[in-house]
Amino acid sequence: xxxxxxxxxxxxxxxxxxxxxxxxxxxxxxxxxxxxxxxxxxxxxxxxxxxxxxxxxxxxxxxxxxxxxxxxxxxxxxxxxxxxxxxxxxxxxxxxxxxxxxxxxxxxxxxxxxxxxxxxxxxxxxxxxxxxxxxxxxxxxxxxxxxxxxxxxxxxxxxxxxxxxxxxxxxxxxxxxxxxxxxxxxxxxxxxxxxxxxxxxxxxxxxxxxxxxxxxxxxxxxxxxxxxxxxxxxxxxxxxxxxxxxxxxxxxxxxxxxxxxxxxxxxxxxxxxxxxxxxxxxxxxxxxxxxxxxxxxxxxxxxxxxxxxxxxxxxxxxxxxxxxxxxxxxxxxxxxxxxxxxxxxxxxxxxxxxxxxxxxxxxxxxxxxxxxxxxxxxxxxxxxxxxxxxxxxxxxxxxxxxxxxxxxxxxxxxxxxxxxxxxxxxxxxxxxxxxxxxxxxxxxxxxxx
Length: 449
Description:
By secondary structure, the chain is of the alpha/beta class. It has helices at about 115-125, 165-170, 170-185, 200, 220-230, 240-255, 285-290, 390-400, 405-410, 420-425, 435-449, and strands at about 5, 25, 30-35, 45, 55, 60-65, 65-70, 75-85, 90-95, 130-135, 140, 150-155, 190-195, 210-215, 235-240, 260-265, 275-280, 300, 310, 325-330.
């Protein structure tokens, strides 16, 4: 019987353009790229050169600080470019895909008989270990870390997020194999939603299952860690995206790297919101082809509207991206009388508009922040939507003040930037809370190094 945790704080934001369960498959064709920015905390060192042929599973770059942590090529083909930015920072490693894909053979394994160190060794060898993150600092972890527990959240409740149960169909065995493999390293906690009914989730083996019943961000793994087994100073927990669990399971079952994931293509600017099976690093242009509405003034996001990265069709599908969304930019909107209008079609958390009288409905929101940044933090605003046992507004103030001792006392080791995504949405001062938290975590990591 799964444990049930009810959460009252939070906010569900219903947007138009939720993906339907129709699934299309993209063939492997064109240029693909693996982007080091997708792996927070990793300093990449490229180990391939332009013109070199690679197979699926060959290392493209490694973590400079931990050379054993490799990052596998998502497709086989010829390396066409190592794109660099300022100060020679690696932006991407690009590959022109072969018409017939070739794979590095790592050999199938029976995870039931493996030890934790063997599981870690296999993931390192195949270039998949970097898909494991950790708290504190919300970064890609390192193999020397000894986690007290591993957390997997199968609940995605951000606006327009892809439904993991749709992605799970056909991948149930790989998902269970991945969970069993992780359980050889440390205790595994699986967080699911109250409405999820897939037996692969509700009857998962080798894990402790917790049901989270409440509004967004109940699906955030940081929120779940806070309620199940909080992180104290000196402790480490690993967090793994459920899609990465499937990647791990495929490796142990098939003996090769398979980075195909089911991505939701959603948003009010998508003509036919649905799902696409695509490889990590697929060009967004291929995913959005024939789906993006005509005309400009559209914001494309590599991710969901709250935590996704602003992108263009020339960018590539992120390693941890479960949805590609498109919403109106809003830079061409002119409203007569501005804020004084009743706005029946606009969303407000403070009941400033009359739309709250119309009950639960989906909104076609654009990317405007509707206001300017103010250097003030409103009391109680974050706490209404942050279902964690921390004082969110005081933590933000401590980060802005650079008070490291105070940050530690207020629970910075337990949080990741995405935990403040909903608070950033409701913030009347329009502060970039996710950026502030990320900068605070980076400073803290350097101080403790």
